[in-house]
Amino acid sequence: MGDQGRTDPGPPPDEGRGGERRCPPWCVVAHDPARGEDDWLHQSEPLTLADGVQARLVMSIDPTTGEEDGPYVLVGDEQLTPAEAERLGIELTALAARARRPQDPREEL
Question: Three-class SS of residue 31?
């Protein structure tokens, strides 16, 4: 028996060679380093919005250098920074709150 003939399978897909985590905790992608650059993209579960538009977190991390691009929030084809997405959520919440208030007949539209 023994370990003769075995090759090192490498680190788990969410860790680099040094054991450092290279996959964000929200990522749901089954990574395969054999895919090269295509494997650098990390994605969260999608959140389906109105009319089937999806939002999700995305980020790329170069597994060699550790250089990060993101995270961003994709809403449909629109890429938002987390701060922009948070602001959008606040504005949508305010808009919905206004819709719940009874309209004062003296107010102009």
Answer: coil
Q: Which residue type is seen at 61? A: I
pLDDT in tens, 72-102: 999 999 999 999 999 999 999 999 999 888 7
Burial bucket for residue 57 (CB in 10 Å: 0-12, 13-18, 19+): buried
Strands 68-75 and 54-61: antiparallel
In Å, how far are 24, 44, 89 from 27, measured between CA atoms?
5, 5, 22
58 token code pair: 């995305």
Percent of the chain with pLDDT over 90: 50
Of 71, 84, 76, 79, residue with least CA distance to 49: 76
- Tell me the C-alpha distance between 80 and 97, whole Å: 23
Q: Which two tokens stand for residue 87?
A: 């602001």
Contacts 24+ apart (CB under 8 A), 25-29: 26/57, 27/59
Domain ranges of the chain: 33-100
